[in-house]
Automatic annotation (TrEMBL):
It comes from freshwater metagenome. This is Unannotated protein. GO terms for biological process: regulation of DNA-templated transcription. Residues 187-306 form the B12-binding domain. SMART domains: HTH_MERR. Pfam families: B12-binding, B12-binding_2, MerR_1. InterPro entries: Cbl-bd_cap (IPR003759), Cobalamin-bd (IPR006158), Cobalamin-bd_sf (IPR036724), DNA-bd_dom_put_sf (IPR009061), MerR-type_HTH_dom (IPR000551), Meth_synthase_dom (IPR036594). GO terms for molecular function: cobalamin binding; DNA binding; metal ion binding. CDD domains: HTH_MlrA-CarA. PROSITE patterns: B12_BINDING, HTH_MERR_2. Residues 13-60 form the HTH merR-type domain. SUPFAM superfamilies: Cobalamin (vitamin B12)-binding domain (SSF52242), Putative DNA-binding domain (SSF46955).
Amino acid sequence: MARAIDTVDEDDSLTVAAVARRLGVAPATLRTWDRRYGIGPSGHDSGTHRRYSAIDLMRLTAMVRLIVAGVTPKDAAIKALAINAKSAKNKVEKVIQESQANGDLVAQLYKSALKFDQVNIEKIIKKSMANDGLETTWVEVIAPLLTEVGDDWVRTGTGIETEHFLSEVLRKILSENLGKIAKPKNSRPVLLACVENEYHSLALAALAAVLAETGIECIYLGARTPQSALNEVIIKSAPPAIFLWAQLSENADHKYVKSIPAIRPAPRILLGGPGWKSSKVVLTNKLVITKGLSDAREQIMQAVAV
């Protein structure tokens, strides 16, 4: 079991083997975390290997506990790296407790999805949204839930009905946040669409709902938007930003982007989804691949000058 946060001594300076023993993980795992997520030893004496300081140990302890609580290693590293020497121990514990609570929420939601209990799913998610906001709920609760459902389907070959049911319930919840902006912050709406042949649109609906919560008005075209329809809306609405979602790499066709009509002022074109990672699109300051929901929101807010 990982060492408790409050037992870390300020003068600790340890080797990778010593830290691995304390945390109950393999030294190779610590090296991987250092290489992949940048969470590693900060101390270094001339002629010796890098050594872990007390704050390094505190961060890694938090990371292990976050992973045990159900947080992905990448997100756990981000949370752990935010811990610094001035962080109060109770603040660190609060971060871990919140993540553990979210892990419990994911487990509860998954059980409800297996029972097709729509009422309980809506109750849990709406409470989380009221307490923490839609964006946090998506990142820390809904996205991990969808990942767990998808992983189980891949592993067992069963449960596609659970995924379909859950997706529709989530789509209903997200749609309740749309169309309620009395005074939008942007003079011209942002355009959101899935590329042609891309039918996975739930993440796009989440972005539309997050933007609505922020006061950004959108034109939401949803799944499988034909090029001709996209172009027609662009010409008629002159959006300041265009966000195109591609879940699958086979749908992330750079020709779809190149065929967007030229308008003035030129919009910022944002690409979202794992499908674009292997695309041949040439990126510029007006053509950006976003790195997640928060980054997409920030990029759109910059484009509309909010």
